[in-house]
Description:
- Residues 75-482 form the AMP-dependent synthetase/ligase domain.
- InterPro entries: AMP-binding_CS, AMP-dep_synth/lig_dom, ANL_N_sf.
- Pfam families: AMP-binding, AMP-binding_C_3.
- Keywords: ATP-binding, Nucleotide-binding.
- By secondary structure, the protein is of the alpha/beta class.
- The protein folds into 3 domains: 10-36 and 319-517, 3-Layer(aba) Sandwich (Rossmann fold); 46-316, ANL, N-terminal domain (Rossmann fold), CATH 3.40.50; 523-662, ANL, C-terminal domain (GMP Synthetase, Chain A, domain 3), CATH 3.30.300.30.
- 35% of the residues lie in helices and 21% in strands.
- Helix 12 (344-361) crosses helix 15.
- The chain starts with 9 loop residues before the first strand and ends with a helix.
Amino acid sequence: MKITKDFKFSYADPNAPEIPGETKPYRHFTIKQNEPLTDNTENSTVYENFMHGYNETEGKGEFLGFRRIIDNVAQPYEWITYEECLQKVKAIGSAFRSERINIKPNEPIGIYSINRPEWVITDFASSFNSMITVPLYDTLGLQALQYIINQVEMKVCCASNDKAKKLLENISSYPTLKKIIVFDSVEEDLQKFADESSIELFYFGDLEEEGKKDIKEFILPKNETVGCICYTSGTTGNPKGAILTNDNLVSFTRSIHNLRSNDLFRYVSHEDVYLSYLPLAHVFERVVQTTVAFYGGKIGFYQGDTGKLLDDASVLKPTLFASVPRLLNRIYDAVWDNINKTGGFTAWLFNFAYNSKKRGLKRGSNTHWLWDRIVFNNIRNKLGGNVKAIYSGSAPLSADVTDFLNICFSCDVQEGYGQTETVACLSLTDKWDMEAGHVGGPMSPVEVKLKDIEDMGYLSTDKPYPRGEICVRGHSVFKGYYKNPELTKEVLDENGWFRTGDIGIWDEHNRIAIIDRVKNIFKLAQGEYVAPEKIEEVYLKHPIVDQIFVHGESLESQLVAVIVPKKSEYKEFAIANGTDQSLSYEEMCKDKNVIKKLINDMNVHARSHNLKGFETIKNIYLEPHEFTEAENLLSPILKIKRGQALQKYKSIIKELYAELKRK
Length: 663
């Protein structure tokens, strides 16, 4: 399909009423006027989704792959077929409902582990019996873990042995948790630990054998049955539990099926192979796996160490690769660093071929009969050599990296946008669209509108294109936050519209581009949320800092800041650290050696005040003149006006990031 200059990826619903202060709802161009949004009647539950994939291969296809580690060496992939998985799910589900474990429909069960076959089997065994899974990130801290387990009143948790030990070490913090099911055989010290804590410990394999002796029919969920409470990592305070129904959980797959049927997405089939390493506790990985399962594809799990991911890829040879910008940025940086270090004819040829293919992207082509074979083949082989599609989510992908992936891997490169509350299903770029800098049109199960944010100057009447807060309604939108009606009411209105907190713009092709955040909270490239005002409060306690403006970007993994130092204190610090005392104060503020020492000193202070690594500032500009109301940098209550500060220091901030990259 050729993308012409007049092509539109979505349209404003002509039947929707005109509401002042917002655009009309936009829908994907494949949804005809007066038709309902793509629903989930064909495969309306996680069970039906799995059985569709099962039937694609008559149960004989390989489904879940894993590598045993023997003497610290990863062995070849072993596979569990769809039929074998279904039998395991029946047995484990029956064991969950036995008197020993005794989980009932609509009760929660925790999953606490890195990705592995048992994670998926536990999820299916719970879902197919109308239980509610509560995934726990394997990196959760004690406070977040305690909050989640206690809020859902979790009685049973399935975990890898290392995570089971972590639970037992703080078991007094979880008064409702009484049973832990471990994925690996029960070690003697772990059993002793459990006995001392009065916790019942079960081995997953033993429960499977017990379940086989008394197979129970599934208590199948309905479309509206809650399937998962997925906790967001949050920015400040406690994590929030998004209530997700079966309808929500399969909406992404239904949307992909619609795109595939219209030749807007790769023809995924039972022949496709997917490498799973992004955490299954995150909705992005979950919906990708749900989609692969729908088509009867193969899912191979990494060995548990992202440092060995390329080894897994070389063995598995995946055709589908989902990732996040942080890893894709690393691949981009590594390739360019190697080219620049190599230099000579090799660098010249690479750049010549790269620029040639970049011109091809503007014509809608990312392949070249010669360059793909003699220049870019080695890069493709890094991911096994068979990748046909790369999918990116969780944070925006820069235009440079998007172009790089298209050029070097010659495959479909698609970027999605969504949140936990929309189960990663809000917008997605189409495979024929190779223009970077946007996140595509609305996906077919939802409709999207922009709402005015007047105090930030974003209006639905802006020219040439409407701007405002992105709001979404449809099949993928969650039902609310668990036991938190007040917070639910803040983001979900009575008509089902969810406020994302992101500022977007409809571009000339009716695609969404993310341009800002409503709140002073942003996500870094690695997916971490940052609350700049909290960070500023900490640094303002440093003896040299008078005023501060902390800045971060979704395409960058580090924070930078503009700082107004206390004049006398800074001069004393600078002279003590080698600055010529005859210099003016303005010249002292430019001394790079002193700035480097000040950053180190400030970050010692920051860590002593419990800021995390990603919350510390990595580069600064020292502003010798105060922020003032007269410059419109301060509000009447002397709070920094972030938008105005960003405008003033935009070029400086760009240089701060450039310096970090040069280092």
